[in-house]
Amino acid sequence: MCSKMEFGSVLQFLENKNILVTGATGFLAKIFVEKILREQPNVKKLYLLLRAADAKSASQRLHNEVIGKDLFRLVKEKWGANMNSFISEKIVLVPGDISYGDELGVKDSHLKEEMWRELDVIVNLAATTNFDERYDLALGVNTLGAKHVLCFAKKCIKLKVLVHVSTAYVSGEKAGLILETPYKMGKTLNGVSGLDIDEEKKLIDEKLNELQAQGATDEAIKEAMKDMGIQRAKVYGWPNTYVFTKAMGEMVVGHLKGNLSVVILRPTIVTSTYKEPFPGWVEGVRTIDGLAVGYGKGRLTCFLGDINGIVDVIPADMVVNAIIVSMVAHVNELSDESIIYQDGKPVKVGRVKVLDSMNSFRRYMALRYLLLLKGLELANVAFCHYFDGMYSDLNRKIKFVMRLVELYKPYLFFQGVFDDMNTEKLRMAARENNIETDMFYFDPKSIEWDDYFINIHIPGVVKYVFK
């Protein structure tokens, strides 16, 4: 990374620019769109790529899942009766799917050519974030989708920068200092050689063909694809399908970027907004919220994890601001490697009754539930399967909890510390260049974390997730 970055006003840069946002109905994408519309209404066009069969269903998704959200209330207050005409002037809906090839599944040839001709910036926020997503879907979006977005970007004649949003947890279960270094093609976490993305795609296709030939049900295919993802991830040292496919996504972007200016952003666990458009806006149960919600509802009687552990979190508005400032900082920058920013802040975990190892958790489960399950099994046989429903229900719940714990285990005992030197250099450069740091803030050191969680984040989860 260059020792001194010089860049001007973010607001001036955004003026009259054409920006493509993929994954437009996602949590971060909505916050990005709202921020641009609110702070720089003179942006030329925001092209929003979202999955939809046609223009009509794309429009319905935009209004139901994006503009219709409370998140946009300040923009609505500002534009009032003119809101619809403002939106139709600034937003271009692009029905498509990044997993559908280098043209991103965009069927409208005029729209495609318009984007290739007009786009200045692409922000790739499309991702599937389930830890144990089906392998075919996760590879299609997180890995091949990233490749397709890059190939699409290369056809854009005046494109200035591509921002690819990844995750800090591509590092797997690594302990110690985790640097902001790119992943080389085929590089694995455990040193096992032979990782080949084309080969992974081939293995998926073979497995799907085999399952279909056997007449497997849709549910059986789904479970087999989920299991395959976890198994393939573990072969090369990653703990789950999500981070494995995101790491491979980074590999293809870095490998194929050529002379395109590419920024890779690796946020840690993204939480509710800190300040803008107002504090506490959140959507869906984020990674760490399941714990708080379970505890608050009295369902969580124990917790597995390291009580001295560190959880890395970053509010969503800070991630969006980092995306915007990084894209302005790296406009038309020629570099052999992608610039990588890790964004997050370590926060100490609070006290709950904690089981500090998998062995103690298994003992707890055995005493509390597995003995009960065994007793129920015997009673079921003795009473001619009278307890069938109760037995299968408890068995299913126990299997679900054990699978969940296996998936989250790498993060409950996470020992890594993320280096954010590039991000810190970006913050310093923003201050030195006198850009609008009050408007595009992304320094987590400014947050008083107890206050944020107690007075902003948790009330936000209660209001927007459990409304």
From TrEMBL:
Descriptive protein name: Uncharacterized protein
Domain of life: Eukaryota
